[in-house]
Amino acid sequence: MEDHDVRAALDRHWAASDANDFEGEHQIYREDAVLEYPQSGERIRGRRNIQASRSAQPNRKRFTVRRILGGADLWVTELVLTYEGRPFYTVSIMEFRDGKVARETQYFADPFEPGPSRAQWVERMR
Question: Is 3-111 in CATH node 1.10.600.10?
Fold first, then answer.
């Protein structure tokens, strides 16, 4: 699979995620895919289980992709995942095999107030 094909698949995946299109969102995964959330210590095996776990979440979420970087079989997406109006800064690392995601690891970070000690060098982002 060419890099531009993977990038197009990722664009479709994140657009489907943002639309809560659970069927479209999970087309990118292999049947034997593994999803890991290191911060909570969770591992989910299998595309159907990944989809079921996400479908079971009671709240609507929004996905804002900041950037996608990668090539060949390794791709990283930086995004803001918003649950009920609360942003989580997220990194998704996807490992592809045979054109589909074989493994994904997601990391989440809460926003925090900037430190005053570095204020003179800081440009605020939003």
Answer: no
